[in-house]
Amino acid sequence: MKAPRDVPPEGTEDDDGQRRSRTDSKRERVATETALAELAERLLTATPKVLAALQLDEMTLQAVADTRRIASAPARARALRHVRSFLRGADWLTVLRRLDALAGGISPSALSESDAARHAALLSAQGDPGLSRFLEEFPEGDRGRLRQLLQNVRRAPEAKREKARRQLEALIQNTLDEHQRAVGAKPGAPEPDVPEHD
């Protein structure tokens, strides 16, 4: 199965050889950067216990601690961009999922590491641009139902976000299963990509 991708380089072709428009790619990048900015802000208000549970690397933790101490708004904005750059280089989707789980009283160790879970996290972070990308890769998806569940995740208060995301994850898993059956039914279809887990 295809693992969820972050934003593709501008003007590149995806696995199916289809060209993505620059506008679509830009929307995904903007949505990702917005999600990273919101995540960075949430990390600044997280307690030390929550930060420890997120298993952030030492440089990210130090950047968060340094940013907390800054009072000047322009300097704080620059420091937040620095935190975002550390998150961008790390597995920020996992950090986001762990933070939402902790806010909902769920242990991060109870989170699923499936492709559907990662797709759900990426969609909930990117919104409609991510949904468009997902449906290009998996046209079997029910756009209306996916959008409804996606909006439920995005509107849910922090404490209920992970529960809403699990409903989205279940629908995504069904979509991935349908796609797998459709690909398997085509004669001479290539084997699906299998993500590597670290």
Molecular structure report:
The chain is mainly α and 198 residues long. The protein is 67% helix and 0% strand. α6 (115-126) packs across α8. The radius of gyration is 18 Å and the shape is globular. Mean pLDDT is 83; it is low at 9-17 and 194-198.
Average residue pLDDT: 83
Radius of gyration: 18 Å
**Helicity range:** 55-70%
Kindly estimate the percentage of residues that lie in beta strands according to DSSP.
under 5%
Shape annotation: globular
Runs with pLDDT <50, length 5+?
9-17, 194-198
SSE-based structural type:
mainly alpha
Helix-strand string: HHHHHHHHH
Count of DSSP-assigned helices? 9
Number of domains: 1
Give the tally of β-strands: 0
What is the end-to-end distance? 16 Å
Q: Main β-sheet: number of strands, strand sense, barrel status?
A: none
Question: Features of this protein?
Answer:
198 residues, mainly alpha, 9 helices, 67% helix
How would you summarize what this structure contains?
This protein has helices at about 20-45, 50-55, 60-70, 75-90, 90-105, 115-125, 130-135, 145-155, 160-185. The protein has about 200 residues and is mainly α. The protein has one domain.
Write the layout of secondary structure elements.
Blueprint lengths: L21 H24 L2 H6 L4 H11 L4 H17 L2 H12 L11 H12 L1 H10 L5 H13 L2 H28 L13
